[in-house]
Amino acid sequence: MKPITLLAVSTLMVLNFGCAKAADLSTFDDIRSQYQNYRDPTRLSYLYNRCAALQLNVSALLQRKGQKKGAQDFENLAQHFMVLSEENEREIDQKRGMKSKETMKTVSRNVANVSEVYSKRMRDNFAKRGEYIVGDTQLESELAECNVPEQFKKKASMN
Q1: What digits encode the pLDDT tens for the residues 55-95?
Q2: 3-state class of 5 per DSSP?
Q3: SS3 of 133, please?
Q4: pTM of the entire structure?
Q5: CA-CA distance, 47 to 157, in Å (whole number)?
Q6: Could you tell me which of 135, 112, 129 has the C-alpha nearest to residue 60?
Q7: What CA–CA distance (Å, rounded) separates 60 from 47?
Q8: Taking the mean position of all CA atoms in its chain, how far away is CA 52?
Q9: Is 70 part of any domain?
Q10: Pairwise CA distance, residues 40 & 123, whole Å
Q11: What letter would DSSP give residue 147?
Q12: Residue 125 in contact with residue 56, Cβ under 8 Å?
């Protein structure tokens, strides 16, 4: 993925930080259960997109606090999850006999959409608790899972 594309996603996410609509996010365990029940590979892409979106939100927060190294680390994790999502989407297309040239654009759009939901949730948490993540057990849990990509990938696809 080109750095400018990830930068564009980050910028879009920051611009939408105050514009997101409230929406509930199913827990990762719920999504993994759905995957287990239906074997729908698009659910894996959705999980990867969720991690990428959460990582980009944390990156933006750290960037605003002047913590450039931490922000870059979270941006790199986000990029890793976007690549996992892209690979999964390409496999799905291949099994369907399709070939898409703009898979990463689609992934970037999907991540941006989920980023809006996370942004809203984090902003609401800040209003309640004075912290963006701490105190929201789902956000805390998801961030902890997303911080270990290989373990997350294994858990996402095997449950």
Answers
A1: 999 999 999 999 999 999 999 999 999 999 999 999 998 88
A2: helix
A3: coil
A4: 0.81
A5: 10
A6: 112
A7: 20
A8: 3
A9: yes
A10: 32
A11: T
A12: no
| Containing structural domain, residue 111 | 3-7+27-158
Asked whether residue 14 is domain-assigned, the answer is: no
Q: Fill in the DSSP letter of residue 21.
A: P
What's the number of CA atoms in the CB half-sphere (13 Å) around residue 27?
Answer: 8
C-alpha dihedral, 11 to 13 to 14 to 17, nearest 10°:
160
Rounded to whole angstroms, the Cα distance separating 51 from 47 reads 6
Domain membership of residue 144 (yes or no) is yes
**CA distances (Å), 27 to each of 18, 19, 45, 78, in order?**
23, 23, 15, 19
Confidence of residue 23 (pLDDT cuts 50, 70, 90): low
Backbone angles phi, psi at 100, to 5 degrees: -110, 135
Rounded Cα–Cα distance for residues 58 and 62 (Å): 6
Question: Which residues, other chains included, contact 148 with Cβ-Cβ below 8 Å and sequence gap of 6+?
Answer: none
Distances (CA, A) of 152 to 134, 142, 157: 21, 10, 9
Whether 12 is in a domain gets the answer no
How many domains is the chain built from? 1
Alpha helices (runs of H) in the chain, residue ranges in sequence order = 3-15, 28-38, 42-64, 68-95, 103-129, 137-146, 149-158
Q: At residue 24, what are phi and psi to the nearest 5 degrees?
A: -85, 145
